[in-house]
Amino acid sequence: MFEQKESSHLFYDLIIPYDKTYCYPITLRNEYFNIQPQHIDFISEDICPEVDQIAKRECIVTNFSNETMNFIFHGKQEPKYEIIFVPCRGIVKSNDSVTVQIQICVHCTTTIHESIKVTVGFSHFKKVLKEYLSHQHISTSKSDKSNKSQRSGRSSVSSLSNQNSTSSEEVITNFNKAKQFSVELSLDARSKLSTKLDEDEIHTFQPPIGEGTFGVVFKGEWRKIDVAVKCVKTDFDSIDDLIPSILEEVKLLEQLRSPCIISFIGYCITKESICLVMEYCPLGSLKKYLQSNPSTNFLKLRFCQDIARGMLYLHENDIIHRDLKPDNVLVISSNPNDEVVCKVTDFGTSKILIDKSGLGKDIKDIGTPMYMAPEIHTLGVLNKKVDVFSYAICLLEIWLGRSPYNPVKFPDAESILSFVSSGQLLEIPQNCPYKKIIKSCWRNRSSKRPSFNEIEKELTVILYNEKDKKTFTTQQTTENNLFQDTTAFRTMVQIQGIESEVIEDLRSKTIM
């Protein structure tokens, strides 16, 4: 096992570049040497390489000749992976074998199909080469005679000969300068899944489906799965400067798993870009959904509940969202009876971890003014309760189905910040079932605002009552319909009865 360097390239000193100048290519089907297996497989489940971990296999090099043989395995060094052989070069005595270890290290979740060059020399190479060419000439002559007598029989044998042998013209060209043979092994590998993704497996589609302060979001595809690809903006910092904070964020995202939080699939960092790959929600943001789809009170309540659940999970993990708003909530279902109807997103690039002491870090004017708590703007201090204030504005917007701030009265961000900082509050419709929750969430003193644990419990009660009300209404409607149907049936029977009596009366008169 080789000691791993700090660089991502683990095996640099053990890779010898392949130079075809003095090489004579031949097939592995020869009488002088052999390498087994000819196909190196790192695809089976038990040998799939872990990302950034070394996986190993072995091959055997055998010398069938009477000469001493030397070999070089030419490894590969690519941005996505490295392949080395230990030993990468060596000597094999006549009629002897050596074992060579194949080591591969992949740097992202990827699939590899590679050709590995091996150069082989002998102590009297020219002698061996002449013998080989002589045998090839005899073999070719026999093949030509066979082809003339049976042209229609040209099949796998002749095609194999054409593929694995060189033409007479190539023989003349390469013979004088050839110093060693070269053969080719094939290698296939499929890494185990990780959050480090292969850039060539991520495909994005225009136009963008969203844009924020920190990046542009595209619908994309990764391994035939629809995904959302967030390309981080690099206008303000170089990619190298951003990498440490992005990796810190990735470490956090890898640990977060909740039904009400958007799922993190992986990331990709290249010289030109940084991409985060997330779960794709075809119904889009809650803001757009509310603007274009009429929603029942029950569905609105479910939106509120799932946002509260998502935020409770974040706060339990000491994460402040800082920019909670309907734009950062994605709808996954319009059926209020589904387990989850929406998920909180975009909490990574705008997150801040809280000290164990419970105090936030000093920061100012972070987030969207319409949803920003007054203490952020006036004091520049952040804690969990700023998200609770933002949640209150979200609640009101969900109920109204539009922005709670009238654009005529509040034409810009400054007017909203001035309104909020002065302690003024928006008007809540009387029929809003969670009016009390909104009032408690946007209290001016942040310490008086409830936690998301308390909010979620209150919403569960409201939802239960709303469901009971809905069930009762449905039952009443069913009973009314049943009563109407029964009355109509009785009326019909009565009419039919009268008609029968009239018909019977007419018949009796006719007989008389």
UniProtKB/TrEMBL annotation:
It holds the Pfam family PK_Tyr_Ser-Thr. Keywords: ATP-binding, Kinase, Magnesium, Metal-binding, Nucleotide-binding, Serine/threonine-protein kinase, Transferase. Residues 149-165 have a biased composition (Low complexity). Mg(2+) binds at residues 328, 346. Residues 139-165 are annotated as: Disordered. The active site is at residue 323. GO terms for molecular function: ATP binding; metal ion binding; protein serine/threonine kinase activity. SUPFAM superfamilies: Protein kinase-like (PK-like) (SSF56112). It comes from the Eukaryota. Residues 203-461 form the Protein kinase domain. ATP binds at residue 230. This is Protein kinase domain containing protein.
